[in-house]
Each structure stands twice: as C-alpha cells, then as structure tokens.
Design a protein that fits this description.
The structure is a homotetramer of 98-residue chains.
Chain A (H helix, E strand, L loop, with lengths): L1 E11 L6 H14 L2 E5 L2 E7 H17 L4 E11 L6 H11 L1
Antiparallel strand pairs in A: 1-3, 1-4, 2-3
Chain lengths: 98, 98, 98, 98
C-alpha cells in the first residue's frame, strides 16, 4: 500500500529554534532513500506504508536522542486503491485545473 | 516508546456519510486491545508505537476493503522520554490549571 | 456557516510543560461562550465560523501574552451545507454503527 | 500578527477526484493576493492573520458553492512574536543545517 504523507515534527522543551532538531529527522529521511520534498511547514514523503512509517519512528528516536524530551507530530497520510498517484501528480492535477 | 495519538480517518469517494466506513476502523481498534477514546473529530489512542501504528495501517486496509477507493487521514502523535503520561493525565493537567 | 473544530495549540520555547499556557486558551474559550469539549489532544469547538475563528485568534494572542514566543497550532475544521450536525451527533453516528 | 499556514481542504461527497473542487480554493487564494505555495498535500499561505483566515473562509464558501455538501479541512498555523520569519526562511533554516 503506497502512501503520500505530509510530516511535521515539532520538538518541545528545546527552546524556540527547532531547525537543529528537525535536521536530525531530515538525515533519517535522506538515509531512508524515500522520495521527499521539503516545504515551509513539513515534508512530503512518498513510498510504501511500512518504509514511510518506519522512517517516521526513526525521526522521533533521532530527535529524542538529540535532546528533545517531548515531540508532537502532525501527519497527513493518503492512500488510494483506485489508481497510482505520485506527489507530482497531485500538484499537477490542481495546476492543470487552474 | 509510548505514544498518545489523535487519529482521524476520512474515506473519500463514498458519498457524504462516512460513519459506516469509520466504524470499520473502530472495529480494528477494539480488536487491537489498545486504550482508545472517541471524540467528535477523531479517536485518541494510547499504547506502544508499533502497536498503535499497526492499528492505523489495519484501519486503512479495513476502510479500503469496505469499499473506499481513497482515504486521507490526519494524525497527531506525541512521544516523551522525560516521564510517563497517560491520556487522562493530559486532560487533568489542563483542568487542574483552569 | 456552522463549524465543528478540533483545536490543538502548542506553545514553543516555554519548556516541556505546556498546560499553564494552554489554560490561557481555555479561559478564552470559556469566555467566548462557545460549546467546547476537552480531550487528550485538543479541544472540540462548535459554533458559527466567525465566532469560532475569533476565539482561535484570541487563543494565540493570550498564549503569546502569557510569554510564549512561538506557537504552532493544528486545526481540523468541518462544515456541511446538507444538514445540521452537532458534535454529539458525530460521536453518536459512529457509536450506533458499532 | 503574521501567520504561516499549511492549508489542506478536503471536499466530501463529490466522488474520488477532488482537484476540480480544490481549484476553487486556489482561485480564492489567487484573488486574495496572499503569498502562497502549492505542495502535494496542501498549500502554504503567508500573511496577516485576518487576511489569511478570511481567505480560508472564502475557500469553504467557494467549495460548497461548487457543489460539495461537506468539507473537512486540516490547518497548521504558526505565529511568533520573537522575530519575523517568512516561508523561505523556514525552508532555508533546515536546509542550511543539513
């Protein structure tokens, strides 16, 4: 089952600047080999369910290891069984209709 | 790693009434034995990371099997390594400060 | 246009314990007179669009005033024009199908 | 109060293909003159609180008018009072740490 995910990890209790911690998550995603795209409020990830969610777990582990005592994460995740769709398809289908 | 999750599964392409599909997800959660609490915009789930996310995957599988061609899910998930906290603790800590 | 909202306000840069700040938001909601219900990962709010979103803005203002330099909030918000539905209806429609 | 928002509008009860409806929302955003950036699971919007949330309301109105009986929307919204930050700053601060 393929998923397209929007992942936004928020470390808590580490002060007001979060990028140093969020970078740990991006290292995990890069190592995962998954297709990703960073935006201003999270990262889009595309891949098989188990691989994507394994990466999310490793993100939490890495951000805790970096020193964050608490994390709250917001995830949007889409699956479809009617047809295959990539992250590029989703953007294109809106742009073409504009 | 223990998590507290807020799970909101939205089947797409099945008409305007979703409860028949969402019930499939609740059957999965019930069978999982995880601690859950239904609210008006999702379900709170508490448990170990792997067990909770395995249940989320089964929810998607069950809702697709029921006939939904597409699903979009919104998840909030919290982990903390500084101390143990239950879903009741989270509500209580706000109520006590009110 | 009536809305049912799930609101989760996360103050950033105030340490690991957030309830003291989140309580400021709950005072705002109480003063608003809106129908609300607290759960372990947010608060359900029901009311007219403008009143509900005005309360959300006041929450951000109150939490900043309490001392939080940064806030990230996750909102789920539903509207429907086919029929009226309360937060209790939403829970009941799932429970009746279980 | 400036906000950076991630907006994801999901029309319900209109079948499996949503882009035709989501486009109505993008027309609203374009007309608003707000700074926006489309990604695969929503749109980033930057601007003053009132202008951004007025656009979100108009999106719901436009998508209902197009024929969607029901909408569920997921919003992430960030505010900060310590310093000014743009959507480009947020991406850059992560990329520079990578």
């Amino acid at each position: 089952m393929k998923v397209i995910m929007d992942l936004c990890v928020v470390p808590i209790g580490v002060g007001v600047s979060l990028s140093e911690y969020i970078v740990e998550c991006h290292k995990v995603l890069k190592d995962s080999g998954l297709k990703t795209e960073l935006h201003a409020y999270g990262t889009i990830i595309e891949g098989e369910w188990d691989a994507v969610f394994a990466a999310v777990k490793k993100c939490h582990e890495a951000v805790h290891e970096k020193g964050a005592p608490r994390i709250t994460t917001t995830i949007k995740v889409g699956t479809r069984v009617d047809r295959d769709q990539t992250m590029e398809d989703k953007v294109r289908s809106v742009e073409e209709n504009l």
